[in-house]
Every structure is written in structure tokens, then in C-alpha cells.
Design brief:
Layout (H helix, E strand, L loop, with lengths): L11 E4 L2 E4 H10 L4 E8 L26 H7 L6 E7 L5 E8 L1 H9 L4 E7 L1 H6 L5
Parallel strand pairs: 4-6
Antiparallel strand pairs: 1-2, 3-6, 4-5
Helix pairs in contact: 2-3
The chain binds zinc ion (ZN).
Zinc ion (ZN) binds next to helix 1.
């Protein structure tokens, strides 16, 4: 395995103060599926709110919207490839809930096509920590 310690050239997902190396996550999953729990049908309920699928209700402002390349999402994605989810851990070690770190284009396409679930890998805490990039 030849992973750059500086993550140069890696696919990195940013959310607020958190960054995860998606390249490293894919490497770990390839070597050992036990770094994650596989879910055949992860629910996409509510995720349309986070994507440019649904406008904010009249008078409201969307505070979070994940940017996607719509043409790429609709033509180049493979919906059989599991999305990757990590639990976000706060500064005091508390769990702040799950976050999709890879697969937003697949989610966009799935929701556009009326699907309600996608296959997903939920990384175990050690793997999620191993792919976190400190600030
Ligand atoms: Zn990396």
C-alpha cells in the first residue's frame, strides 16, 4: 500500500472542521471489509434537503447544500457501489451522528430516479479515525 502521508492527490471530503481521506477509506475497504458494516438498504430519507434537488420553502434559506455535478451524477455514477458513511466524533469524543463521506453524486441520482435506499458501508470507529485528516 502506498498512501501519501500528506494526502496529496487524495480524494478528501470536507465537512465543517472535519476532513476525511476517501482514498484511504477505499484502500482499507479493499483490503479488509471488516473495517465497516455493510448495509444493503441505507435509507436516503431526508437527504434531498441537503442536495440541489428541492428548493428551500418560500421565505427560508438552505444553510447546508452539498455541491454536485449533476451531469456526472446522472450519467457516470454506479448505484451498486456502496456509499461510505463515517460517524462524526466531536472534540470531547462524543458521537455527532453519521455523515456520508463518499457517494453524494450517487445519492443525487438515486433520489432523482425515485430510489429510497442505496447500499452503504458504515466505517467502524477505528477506521473512521484512521482516515480522519487532522486540521
Ligand atoms: Zn489520503
Amino acid at each position: 500500500m502506498k498512501h501519501s502521508p500528506s494526502h496529496s492527490g487524495c480524494q478528501v471530503f470536507h465537512f465543517g472542521a472535519w476532513r476525511w481521506c476517501v482514498t484511504r477509506a477505499l484502500e482499507l475497504l479493499e483490503v479488509h471489509e471488516s473495517v465497516a458494516t455493510f448495509h444493503e438498504h441505507a435509507s436516503l430519507a431526508g437527504m434531498d434537503e441537503l442536495l440541489p434537488l428541492k428548493p428551500a420553502p418560500e421565505g427560508y434559506l438552505k444553510l447546508v447544500e452539498v455541491k454536485v455535478d449533476i451531469e456526472y451524477a446522472m450519467t457516470k455514477t454506479d448505484l451498486t457501489k456502496p456509499i461510505i458513511v463515517a460517524l462524526v466524533i466531536g472534540l470531547s469524543g462524543e458521537s455527532l451522528g453519521p455523515m456520508v463521506i463518499d457517494g453524494w453524486h450517487r445519492i443525487y441520482r438515486a433520489l432523482s430516479e425515485g430510489r429510497e435506499t442505496l447500499p452503504a458501508y458504515l466505517l467502524n470507529p477505528a477506521a473512521a479515525e484512521a482516515i480522519r485528516i487532522p486540521l
